[in-house]
Structures are given as structure tokens and as C-alpha cells.
Amino acid sequence: MYVRLLTHTPDPERTVAAAARLCYSATGAARLYEDLSVEQVDKLLAHLIESGYESPTEHVTFTFAIEGVSRSLSHQLVRHRIASYSQQSQRYVREQSFDYIIPPSVAAVPALKARFHTTMATIQNAYNELLKAVPAEDARYVLPNACETKLVATFNCRSLYNFFRLRCCRRAQWEIRALACAMREEVRRVAPRLFALAGPSCETEGICYEGRFSCGRAPLASHSRGQGREE
Amino acid sequence: MYVRLLTHTPDPERTVAAAARLCYSATGAARLYEDLSVEQVDKLLAHLIESGYESPTEHVTFTFAIEGVSRSLSHQLVRHRIASYSQQSQRYVREQSFDYIIPPSVAAVPALKARFHTTMATIQNAYNELLKAVPAEDARYVLPNACETKLVATFNCRSLYNFFRLRCCRRAQWEIRALACAMREEVRRVAPRLFALAGPSCETEGICYEGRFSCGRAPLASHSRGQGREE
Amino acid sequence: MYVRLLTHTPDPERTVAAAARLCYSATGAARLYEDLSVEQVDKLLAHLIESGYESPTEHVTFTFAIEGVSRSLSHQLVRHRIASYSQQSQRYVREQSFDYIIPPSVAAVPALKARFHTTMATIQNAYNELLKAVPAEDARYVLPNACETKLVATFNCRSLYNFFRLRCCRRAQWEIRALACAMREEVRRVAPRLFALAGPSCETEGICYEGRFSCGRAPLASHSRGQGREE
Amino acid sequence: MYVRLLTHTPDPERTVAAAARLCYSATGAARLYEDLSVEQVDKLLAHLIESGYESPTEHVTFTFAIEGVSRSLSHQLVRHRIASYSQQSQRYVREQSFDYIIPPSVAAVPALKARFHTTMATIQNAYNELLKAVPAEDARYVLPNACETKLVATFNCRSLYNFFRLRCCRRAQWEIRALACAMREEVRRVAPRLFALAGPSCETEGICYEGRFSCGRAPLASHSRGQGREE
User: Fold this and answer.
1) What pairing do the DSSP bridges indicate for beta strands C61-70 and C2-8?
2) How far is CA C70 from CA B226, C91, C115, D119, in A?
3) Residue A151: enclosing H or E segment and its boundaries?
4) Which CATH architecture group holds C2-65+150-199?
5) Which candidate, B175, B212, B231, C48, has a CA 20 to 30 Å from the CA of A217?
6) Given its phi and psi angles, is residue A52 left (phi above 0), alpha (psi -120 to 50 degrees) or beta?
7) Residue B96's pLDDT is what?
């Protein structure tokens, strides 16, 4: 898996702080953006995060280059609708020698791993055969979920908060969890205060809302609400 | 492919007409909803469609049961973000005897069709083997794009207009085009005036904006703009 | 204030239950929708709400006729972006005798109330005068926030959950809180189980996350996160 | 009116070009982003715009500081839901000496202008009086639509295309049209090719779809569809 922050709104923490401050100030955002001291930015962000006042964080966006992930993952990923995606198309790009992702549980057992590789080879041959006679968009019907794909994905900070809360949780499927954690590493490098607390509630609150599905990492909330899930 | 309109906002055309009328009226929507005559509803809808005034059509939603479609299709479908989806999960539902979709171009050639079936059988065997040792969410990595899936999808009317414009076009991939046309049949039964003109511009305007990608069904617009596409 | 549920997805609880069940079942949604017993629907909804699994609730929508509210309120309301709105337009509808909303804190003090009415009358006169010479869309610049407006608003159930959590809270402004509570009354009549627990966390969990802004109705969470707010 | 591009995705045209190219390429986005020549970026953008392939333009966002606009305008503006807003709050910021916007049609006639100023002064006095006795969130009910407000607004490029198409049109209300044109000036400075053609169809296609509402600037399309409108 290859995850890299391709680009992002410059000075994201200053941008969020200026937008947040505007709501309670007679001063315009352009001046706030220029005049806020580093200490004021810090203090505003601390207040924002403490009070759960998330809407100003929408003003900054983060664009990721993602490679070496499966089509299983991408199908889950694009269910997050408050984001923008561009994905390598199996309708137009021919997979004459496709890469694929092996789940760790399969890779760990030599016999299963061998069976997995053999199956991929069989699929590759069938695909190549079909490709001689039909369009790529039809030949791809034999391609596996494991098939590697590449994407560009853009999220704003608030949508990332939601993504990290759901997908950095141990209940999330392993591959999308690895992606979410890698994306979080990337954004923490450029906006450490904005993302210091981003993640599942066991990390941010020391409490778990997953009820009987909990992994046990943190004590259960007395009233267990769950956090909402997709797919 | 099985497509059925599961449920929808009752009396959708009256609902849209009342909402549209409200914007230009001193009367409230509850009274308009009750008092508009059938002729007034007709006239309001005709005006809406002629003038491209689409926002009141968002108030009505249509929920579809969709079965017998491939995971290729569902991956494309869920890219339409102004909609809601529930999909049979390959993490939780075991595919010990999965159904699959064969592209017509493959089914038309006996040798290709045979190769396709053989490949599916190989995959099925590998999947069943993996399932003995690893969770379903990992075994599914060998499953093909062709694998059958089931969904519930809800769109509002305005989002359907966009969906039909893009996906009933002959440039769309065959399977999602068949789905879009079947969905359009369903909604035309319950809201014939709202959807009379829904579809690609060759049907609605007698003109094509696809430029050099045009299928030739309608003359090209002098300035060819395309219609926007996803995936 | 007049709030009425104009229309909604028929049998909303069955619709949500069928969509939720589909994700974990080999059976299609059309059959589930028909075959689920009332007891099964109940049980599925109870599980959904307990586990915070909200996405299936998006399949059902509720359309409200709203009258007798101020433009202050409507400006706040339309900040909720996962919803559809049609609003009486001040560009097209002339307010030659506009109604207006008086805040209870003003109405409670006779002198303030008199001052309020006088100011409204002055504005009405100026508006009528301007209307003789300029278009309604320009004359409206003198109209007050208090000016009455009418809307049609459509939300799906999941978006209503968010709306009720934020706007039924005592920290919300009084007018939008009254609207939210009235809307909740309406939907509880037709989908009592779906909305039994909808509201701020003091009602749903017996805990408050508002920290130092708390009204004191429920004990504070040890880690106070706030709930996110708009405007 | 004061409109300034506060910040934006760096190198927006390269970002869009890399995302667009990824869909049809075996190469990942990080390498495309680094390796595309200026000529390749130009060519990719030209192709995008010609073919109406808008989805890759979502990856770049533009954040505006907006001041000196009316609450009439902001109420219209926030109806554009694919965007993020932070707005100076009349609940928290006291308007003890509020600025206001005078429509040009009113300002052009001395008697109307005087009447407008007098009305504003009456409102200011009433507001200040109320403020002594009630919270700002209630006193604001007397404030006019003309009242000045400040915002931060973030749009992605695709959403700006829609905004400029609707709001740079002469049918749009004068104030939001002035805002849209000022925003377009700003983004054209930093992404001239992306926004070269952004605007109403009379500018981009030399044709008008507004039917009987047309301003006459460009010939009518044979089949007049309108372009969709909000509020």
C-alpha cells in the first residue's frame, strides 16, 4: 500500500482558526488570517476541538494519492460520499499483468497462499484470453476483488474526522483500516493539532461505544450507542 | 437483472407541484397540496420541465430493490453520491454458491462463454477452500467483479434526472445502462409527467453534446460540451 | 408557527428494516419488504438503534410544510445541507402586508413589544413606498429578520437524527428549537420506533457533552466533546 | 463588497490534470503530479473542458473571504449546498452600529435613498433599545435584510462551475451576480485555464437556454431547457 498526501490547503490550521474566529468577531476573515498570532491559532484550535465545533474545519482539504490497494477497498472507500474520487478505470486501462492484494490471513498460511496465487494466475489467463475478443470493460468481469487499483481522493478535514473515527477502529476491515491509519499519519505531519485527537472514541475519549461488538481496548460507555457504520 | 420500485413518496407529482408553487405564492404548501387541481398540477409540471427549474423535484424520493447485478455495476453505481445505498455485504454474507453476471459479448461466443464458466468454477472452489480457514471478509478477495450483488438504492427525482442523463446514454457501460433504463421504466409508471423527458440529451433535446464520442443517434451540438461523467 | 408533515415514504419502519436486513442476508429486499413480520421489523429497528447503525434510515424521507417562522430561522435552517428546501421568495412574492415573528423575550415586556410593533410598521411603510419605484427584490432590503416565511423541507431520517440532536437541545436558539420539536412530534406519530430516541444526548443517553455550555439538565460526560454546531 | 481569495489548493491545474490522467493510465497519481510537463497539463485541461469531464476538478478547492454583502445575499448563497460556510453570527456579534447595503436602484433616486437611510436609522435605534433588555439573538429580529455580513466560503472547482453558470447570468439577482463575478475574477488569476470558460451558457456556448426569460444577449437554443435555479 502506498499512501501519499499529494497536496492540501496551505497553512490549514491558520485557515480553520480564521474561519472559526470570524463567526464571533466583527473583524473580517482576510484580516484575521493575516493577524492571528501563532498562539491565538493554537488557542482557537484547542477550543474548537474541546467543544466539538467542527464546521470551520471543512474549509481545508487534503488530497491523497493511493496505490497498491484492492478493488474491495475502493468499493468500501467510495461509499464515503463527502469526498471526491478519481480512480483508475478497468473500462479503459487493460490489466494484462494485474497486481493483487493478498490478505495477511491468507499470506500467513503457505498452502492458502499458494492456492491464492494459482487462482490469480488462472484469472489472469482467462482475462487475457477474453481481451483478445471482447472490450476491456467486459473482460474485467473475471477480475478479482483482490485486483490492485489506484486512486486520488480528496476529503475535507471534517469528513476525515468521520472517516478516521469509523475506519481507524479495530472493528473496521483490516485493509481500509491500514489505509485510514496511513492517511492519518500523512495529515498529522502537516496539521498536528487539527488531527491530534482524530480517531475512534477509544483513542479520543478513552471510551468505547461499540457495545457487544467492542474489541475491549477501552471500557464500554454505560449507554452504548455505536458510531454508525457504512457497508 | 431484477429491478423493482420498492416504495416512493406518495403522489409525487402533486408534491413537486405544491413545492414549486409555494416559491411564487402567498399560500402555504399544505393548502396548495390539498387544493391544486389536477390541471394545475399538470401545468406546473410542464412549466418546471420547460424551464429547467429542478430544485422542487428533490422533495420526492424513489427506493429501488436491485438484484442480479454485478459488483462491477455496484462499484460504478455508488459513485453517484446524491443517493442512499444498502448493499449485501461480502464481509458478512458467505458466497458458497455465488451467482454471476456474464457480459453479452462473452455469452455470444460459445468458447468464451465456456472459458468464463470454467473460471467462475475455479474461483468458487478457491473461495470455498479459503473460507474453511479465513474469515469471509478475506476469502472474498478471490471473488470476481462478475459476482452477483443485491442493493436497495434511494434517489430523489433530481438526482435521478442526472443519473438517467448519464447512464441511459449509449456511451454508458451496458450493464449500468440496462439498470438505468429499467429504473426509468419503473418511475415512469408512477410519475409519467415528471419522467417523460428524463434521459440523455439525444432523447430530451434531439441533440448530442458528446462530440467525437457521440454514437450518432442525434446531430451534434455546434458547441459540444459533454455532459460530465463519473468513472 | 405551523408545522405539518405533508408526506413521507409509506411504511417507513418496514422500509428501513428491509434495507438493514438486506446487508446481512442472501434474500433480496423486495421479498424482505413483503415477508418481514411486524415482530421482525421491531427487532431489526431495536438492533439498529442500539448499535448506531444509521445508514439504512436514509431510505425514508419526510416532507414538512412550515409556516409562521421568521427569515432568521430559515437562514439557520437551510444551513443543514443534507435536505431539500423550497421557500417562498421575497424576490417574487410582494410583502405588502407582511406578518412577523416576535421573540417571547420581547413580547413579555409591553414597552419592548410596542417598540417592536412600531418598528415593524415603519418598515412596512418604507417597503410599500420603495415597492412603487423599484422591484420587489430591491425593496426587500428593508424587510426585517422577523418577517414571516413559508417553506417546504424534506429530510431523510438520518439527517433528521442529526437535526434533532443539535436543534432540540436547549442550547439551540428558541425558534429553531420550537421548529425541531414540532417536526419531531410529527414524525413520531408515523414512525414512533424510529424516532423514539431522537434528540439531544441528555434525552437519548442521559448525559451531556456540552461541557461548560451545558444547561445542567443531565450530568456532564467525563470527556466533554460537544456535538458540533452550525451558525 | 470585498471579495478576496483567501487560500486555495496549490497548483490547482496540475492537480486536476494528474487526477484526470490517472483514470486512463497505469501510472500512479504521485508520479503523474510530478512528471507531467506544462504542455501535458495544458492539453489535459483542454480535453477536460471540451468533453465536459468535470469530476477531476473537484479535487481543488478555493476559499474566499467575503465582506460588505447583505444578509439577503448570504441567505441565497448558503442555498448552494456543495460548499462550506462560516458566517459572522448575529446571535453572538452585536450590531450596535451595523453597516448596510443599498440596492443601486434605490441609491439612484435621492428621495428613495433618503427614505432608506432613515429606515435604517430607525431600525438601529430600535435594535439598540432592545439590546438593553434582551439577548442579541432576539434583538436581531428587527435587523433588516440589508444588514452587512461577513463570510468565509469554500467551494471546489466543479461546484464553482455550477455557481458561475447560475449566478453570473443576468437573470440572477444583482448582488449575488456581483459576488459571483468577483469570485470568478479571483480564481481566474490563479487558474486561468480551469475557469476560462466558466459562466453562463451565453458566454461559454454563445447560446441561451433561458427561453422566454432570456435577456437576449445570445440567441435562444432551439429546445430551451433552462439551467436550473435555486431560490
Assistant:
1) antiparallel
2) 42, 16, 18, 20
3) strand A148-156
4) 2-Layer Sandwich (3.30)
5) C48
6) left
7) 82
Whether D29 contacts D116, CB under 8 Å: no
Query: Beta partners for C100?
Result: C147
Residue at B174: amino acid letter: W
Chain D's closest residue to A34, CA to CA, is D6
pLDDT of residue A125 exceeding 70, the answer is: yes
pLDDT band with cut points at 50, 70 and 90 for residue A51: confident
A231 pLDDT higher than 50 = no
Contact criterion met (CB < 8 Å) for A109 and B173: no
Q: Is B123 in contact with A126 (Cβ distance < 8 A)?
A: no
Q: Are B149 and B69 in contact (CB under 8 A)?
A: yes
Active site residues of B: 167
C-beta atoms surrounding B214 within 10 Å = 18
Percent of chain D with pLDDT over 70: 96
Buried b (16+ CB within 10 A) or exposed e, B159-189: bbbbbbbbbbbebbbebbbbbbbbbbebbee
User: What gap in Å lies between CA C72 and CA C1, rounded to an integer?
Assistant: 14
In a 3-state reduction of DSSP, which class is residue C142? helix
**Prediction ipTM score:** 0.94
Q: What is the pLDDT of residue D223?
A: 55
Q: Extract the runs of DSSP E, i.e. beta strands, from chain B.
A: 2-8, 61-70, 84-87, 148-156
Q: Are A159 and D156 in contact (CB under 8 A)?
A: no
Chain B partners (3+ C-beta pairs within 8 A): A, C, D
Q: Which of B94-98, C174-178, C189-193 is the least confident region? A: B94-98
Question: How far apart, in whole angstroms, are the C-alpha atoms of residue C101 and residue C68?
Answer: 7
Of residues B197, B186, B191, B161, the one with CA closest to residue B15: B191
The arithmetic mean of pLDDT across residues D23-52, rounded, is 94
Taking an 8 Å cut-off on Cβ atoms, the answer to whether D86 and A28 are in contact is: no
Give the CA distances from residue B30 to residues A26, B13, B27, C70, C126, in Å, rounded to whole numbers and listed in that order.
40, 15, 9, 18, 31
Contacts of B53 in chain D (CB under 8 A): 226, 228-229
Cell of A87: 480512480
pLDDT band for position A227 (cuts 50, 70, 90): very low
Percent of chain A beyond pLDDT 70? 96
Nearest CA to D154 out of A155, C226, A80 is that of: A155
- Chain A nearest C-alpha distance from D222 (Å): 35
Closest of C56, C64, C46 to residue C8, by C-alpha: C64
Three cell numbers at A29?
A: 476573515
In sequence order, the 6+-apart residues with CB closer than 8 A to the CB of B103 are: A134, A138, A141, B174, B175
Coarse DSSP helix, strand, coil percentages of chain A, rounded to the nearest 5 percent = 50, 15, 35
Classified by CATH at the fold level, domain B2-65+150-200 comes out as Gyrase A; domain 2 (3.30.1360)
Domain spans, chain C? 2-65+150-199, 98-146
Residue D222 has pLDDT above 70, yes or no: no
Distance from CA of D210 to the nearest CA of C (A): 17
- Active-site choice (A140, A165, A167, A184): A167
Are B93 and C25 inside 8 Å of each other by CB?
yes
CA-based nearest distance B144→chain C, Å: 18
Cell of A211: 457495545
Q: Is the pLDDT of residue B87 over 90?
A: yes
A231 vs C contacts (CB less than 8 Å)? 23
Considering only CB atoms, B23 lies closest to which of C18, C84, C89, namely C89
**A41-55, C66-80, D73-87, D121-135: segment of lowest average pLDDT:** A41-55
pLDDT at residue B76, rounded to an integer: 97
User: Looking at residue B223, what is its pLDDT?
Assistant: 55
SS3 C153: strand
Q: Are C28 and B150 in contact (CB under 8 A)?
A: yes
Amino acid sitting at position A164: F
Q: One-letter amino acid identity for D24?
A: Y
Whether pLDDT at D206 is above 90: no
